[in-house]
Amino acid sequence: MEQTLALIERSHKGDKDARNVLAQQNMGLVYTVARRFNGRGCEMEDLIQIGSIGLLKAIDKFDLSYDVRFSTYAVPMIAGEIKRFLRDDGMIKVSRSLKEMAVKVCMTREKLEKDYGREPTLEEVSEEIGATREEIVMAMESASEVESLHKTIYQGDGNAISLMDGIKEEKDASEELLDHMLLNSLLGTLEEKERDLLRLRYFEDLTQVQVAKQLDMTQVQVSRMEKKILGKLRERL
């Protein structure tokens, strides 16, 4: 552990050799996490490359004052990088020509709707753009399939909620372990009183007034500290 911290400190000071040594020593973490995402439409080699980016980010962002092991901090970072890649790259693969066709269909439908004052038929769209009905249907389905998951269904308080947010995600044991490690790594960066406040508010479901009594604080102090803690955790996430 001390050797790892020493290498991280040197890396933060610009020592590229120390950074490379750290990355090599912890590649086992990348392989372990990448195997969990194997078989999701992406080659294992690509997953390892993306996971390595997460490892390097963990090295660069690790705070030496954190009361957690580097591996505990790095694993959620690696998993998060791979998850972002799979999400942004899209699990539904649509060809470029099909995407272009979908855009053309959409624009043509809007044009014809203005011209006719009604929703155009499939035959009318087909004749306008010179494509078969089957090609148009495939293009429309490919576009709606992708949009259906990411389309905003509610906007409020500055937070957008997409249809994907309402899909129940089946978690396996390794998924829960990663989440648990992420939570532990975040809580480990807090002071003892801050951890106590979160425990009382979010795990024991006490009100701010009740928490204030237990921590010998005022309700205003609890409110301010809670906002500060949540802001700190949000930034570190």
TrEMBL record:
Residues 46-59, 207-233 form the RNA polymerase sigma-70 domain. It holds the Pfam family Sigma70_r4. InterPro entries: RNA_pol_sigma-70_dom, RNA_pol_sigma-B/F/G, RNA_pol_sigma70, RNA_pol_sigma70_r2, RNA_pol_sigma70_r3, RNA_pol_sigma70_r4, RNA_pol_sigma_r2, RNA_pol_sigma_r3/r4-like. It comes from the Bacteria. Keywords: DNA-binding, Sigma factor, Sporulation, Transcription, Transcription regulation. The keyword DNA repair does not apply. Belongs to the sigma-70 factor family. Sigma factors are initiation factors that promote the attachment of RNA polymerase to specific initiation sites and are then released. This is RNA polymerase sigma factor.
